[in-house]
Amino acid sequence: MGSMAYHFLLFAWYTFLVVLMLLIDTDKVPMGIFAYAGLWKYLTFLNLVLQMLYFGISLVLDIYTSFWKHPEARMLTSCKDILFSVLAFPVGSFVVTIFWMIFLYDRELVYTKEMDRIIPSWLNHSLHTIVLPFLLIEIFLQPHVYPERKHGMALLGLCSAGYLSWVVWIYITVGAWVYPLLGKLSPLALAVFFAVSTGLAFSLYVLGEVLNAYTWGKKRKKTKCI
């Protein structure tokens, strides 16, 4: 019941944040932030939707397994674990890590001071800070069965390539980069940045796997939906 309560609270929290972000008054958006694709071009917002989806699925599965013991529950749990291991933890921790690394170096490269007018400090930390503690609590709250590492990384790599392609497509379409930092890089530096970012995502995937194994003392085993 503890995990069910936690999943309910996190699902409600992320639903609140998603709705709040969608209700932002676009008339107050600082100059230079283009409207193309709306919030769906930002990894921060996509991560909110991802976390909402994961904790929502977890809540439904908690309720399902509490009242009905059905063989399909094992398959559903395996697929939920893949969502957590391949996307929810790596993407959520990546958003926190990369945002604060760039912010502490030069906030204007990722989050201009003008953004403070529409996103107060508490909301900024909700988007870019407490995501990671919530994910760590999830690891310590219940075990997750990770897929074979080569399969998990392949899926993560595919998703990473998909988002990077989306960012490049927006640049080709609009003529401006989603993030100010990208516009200051040469083509070679841009390729290096994308490669390093992908490497960081892979490292965070392994971190989640190690923390899960250390906490629960279980070896990785192949899941049934890979």
Find the count of extended strands (DSSP E, 2+ residues): 0
Give a quick account of the main beta sheet: strands, pairing sense, barrel closure.
none
The average pLDDT value, as a whole number, equals 89
Alpha-carbon distance between the two ends: 29 Å
What class, by secondary structure content? mainly alpha
Low-confidence stretches: 219-226
How large is the count of helical segments?
A: 7
- Which radius of gyration do the C-alpha atoms yield? 18 Å
Helix content: 55-70%
The shape, in one word, is globular
Compressed to H and E, one letter per element, the order equals HHHHHHH
Percent of residues in β-strands: under 5%
Please tell me the total number of domains.
Answer: 1
Family: Belongs to the AIG1 family.
Organism: Erpetoichthys calabaricus
Transmembrane segments: 7-24, 39-61, 82-102, 122-141, 153-179, 191-214
Protein name: Androgen dependent TFPI regulating protein
What's the gist of this structure?
With 226 residues, the protein is mainly α. Helices cover 69% and strands 0% of the residues. It has one domain (2-216).
Notes on the protein architecture:
- The protein is mainly α.
- The protein has one domain.
- The protein has 7 helices and no strands.
